[in-house]
Amino acid sequence: MAGRRVWESLPAITQILVAVAAAYAIAHWGFGHAVPLLAVTVTINSLGFTRDARPVRVAETVLGILLGIALGDALALLVGRGLWQLVVVLAVVFVVGRAVSANPAFAVAAAVPSALVVLLPEPDGGPFTRSLDGLIGGAVALLATALVPRDPRRAAARDGRALFSVLEESLAGVVDALADADPAAAELALSRLRRTQPLVDAWATSLDSAISVARISPWVHRQLPELRRDARVAAAADLTARHLRTIARRSEFLVRDGRSRPELASVVSQLATAVRLLGLELDDAELAGSARTELTHLAARLDPASLIPGAGASDVTVLLLLRPLAVDLLVATALTPGEARSLLPPVD
Q1: Per the database record, which ranges form the Integral membrane bound transporter domain (predicted)?
Q2: Residue 108: is it exposed, middle or buried by C-beta count within 10 angstroms (0-12/13-18/19+)?
């Protein structure tokens, strides 16, 4: 686990190290600052290891830090340095930070460097030398986001695989429940599906971050179409998880009578195949279109009158729940909602 964390953080570590070296070099050799402490700390704090590496998030952090440094420098000139002065400076910075941004982290980001400015001796270059260092660090952090980006698809792809893995396991449980009249299998599938929301949120965050970076970075801009496709699939995966919770719940209730439903198990199994192919397409361009083909065949089968003639209302309900799910997944393959719905057989 520790080794995996380190491996996954290597792009962020590389980005931060390059940015720190650049910020130090500019402040130290370019502007003659002997110890450009805030140039380095601003760079590190602005980039960090956060999942959300969007330029707007980096810019917000930079702005908060620069605000704290500037206020610290200005107030230190007015009230001097010491304990009560530190308290006054922090009070002002917290008030201004909360007024400027609704994000509590903004005020905290502003407060830490303002405290450093008040506590450290005045630098040789004058009172606003550290403000210049902070500006250098912030500018370098923003440039690093575009020019030394972390792999924008790496974290997103990892999050997508994690979500699809749970969806596939859950669908397998629903298939077992319907094929073997096993309520426990449906309950297990439902418990797995109830834990998918953090995975959905993590994938959405990493994709949003990756798309934001790809828009401005010349090195990874070519990945933007793939990332937008992934975002479309992620939206469908979210809807799939929601649909499947209802289907798993209904299936668990349905098989309490001890009767297997092989026809329903067959279409859910085909759905599982389509979901698996959709997930594989994200990493393998050669599989493009395979999920749409499978879903098109599945949609044509979702007619209660032909698949389960004479079945009770509960059986029909489970089958009907699969129809909007098939439409959502077809939309993920780049069909329009109208085109997807047209593939479903009419229901009387």
Answers
A1: 23-144
A2: middle
What confidence tens digit (pLDDT) does each residue in 255-302 have? 998 999 999 999 999 999 999 999 999 888 788 889 999 999 999 999
For residue 283, the tally of other CB atoms under 10 A from its CB is 11
Give the pLDDT of residue 51. 63
CA dist 254 and 311 (Å) reads 12
* Closest C-alpha to 237, from 202, 266, 263: 202
Structure-token match 């003639």, residue found = 309
Compute the 3-state secondary structure of the chain and give helix, strand, coil in percent, each to the nearest 5.
80, 0, 20
C-alpha dist (Å) from residue 5 to 37, 59, 160, 163: 28, 26, 18, 19
Distance of CA 14 to the CA centre of its chain: 21
Among 195, 278, 277, which residue's Cα sits nearest to residue 241?
A: 195
Give the SS3 label for residue 217: coil
Helices (H) and strands (E) in the chain, counts: 15, 0
Whole-angstrom distance, CA of residue 45 vs CA of residue 156: 23
Q: Is the pLDDT of residue 81 over 70?
A: yes
CA 108 to centroid of chain Cα atoms = 24
How far is it, in rounded angstroms, from Cα 23 to Cα 141? 8
The structure tokens listed for 173 are 């449980």
Q: How far is Cα 2 from Cα 37, in angstroms, rounded to an integer?
A: 30
pLDDT reading at 331 higher than 90: yes
DSSP state of 26: I
Enumerate the CATH 1.20.58 domain ranges in the chain, comma separated.
154-342
If one counts every other C-beta atom within 10 angstroms of the C-beta of residue 101, the result is 17
Q: What CATH number matches the domain at 154-342, 1.20.1740, 1.10.260, 1.20.58, 2.60.40?
A: 1.20.58
Token pair belonging to 67: 């605000």
